[in-house]
Write a sequence for this structure.
């Protein structure tokens, strides 16, 4: 296996951290890793900003997050301080293709944009 370039490895490490239920229910940890201009298009098609996603994930009314299983994570450095990741997740039989943009800031790597699209059959991974 080839070693990943530093920026890609850092983005992957942070992405995996975001899948951890402990991180997902901690407003301070989420605030540290989500860029102030963060935007997300969720699996439902709903648009999220940083404040809304932090409030939703950390709300007492929200079902406690559980770990997502990630697979096929790949990344590419698009330019200095910008990494694009793609990967799939699975949770309770629901699968999603995911895409994330990570930016290097004075505070470290932060998630700038994320999109998730549900899928049933995957023509790119059929044997």
């Amino acid at each position: 296996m080839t070693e990943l370039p530093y920026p890609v490895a850092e983005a992957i490490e942070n992405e995996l951290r975001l899948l951890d239920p402990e991180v997902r229910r901690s407003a301070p940890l989420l605030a540290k890793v989500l860029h102030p201009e963060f935007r997300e298009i969720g699996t439902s098609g709903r648009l999220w900003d940083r404040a809304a996603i932090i409030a939703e994930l950390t709300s007492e009314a929200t079902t406690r997050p559980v770990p997502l299983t990630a697979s096929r994570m790949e990344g590419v450095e698009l330019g200095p301080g910008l990494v694009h990741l793609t990967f799939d997740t699975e949770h309770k039989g629901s699968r999603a293709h995911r895409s994330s943009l990570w930016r290097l800031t004075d505070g470290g790597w932060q998630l700038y944009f994320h999109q998730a699209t549900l899928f049933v059959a995957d023509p790119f991974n059929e044997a």
The helical segments are 6-18, 21-24, 27-33, 50-58. The mean pLDDT is 90. The longest strand covers residues 94-105. Residues 6-18 form the longest helix (13 residues).
